[in-house]
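Re: weekly structure request thread

Next one in the queue (110 aa):
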Amino acid sequence: MAELVRDMLSSCDLGVEVFNLGAELFESPRLLSFKAIVLDLSLPDIEGFDIMDKLAAIGSSSSILVTSGHDSSIVLAAKIYGSGIGLNMRGALTKPFTREDLLSGLGLTA
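Done, posted below.
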């Protein structure tokens, strides 16, 4: 899924980094400089809610767009949860989503 998101954003002339594991995200020296994070709620090593907790703990100011194949109510709950712990929640997308959905969720245009 991360590769698909990267491909969807490739034509927008953005610097896109892909992390397949939550641990990889937190190892990035540029983490606090990311303008936006597209966060899948189900990663192999850590749940999205735990990632949001860690992002809030380090004071992340990134805009966060949560995605998931779970029911839309869970994705919406994640967005509300993130806002409640002080994150800059940009939106929530339920899979599958289109390139246009992703761009719109990030506040970008094609």
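The CA atoms of residues 7 and 22 lie 20 Å apart. The radius of gyration is 13 Å.
Next request, please.
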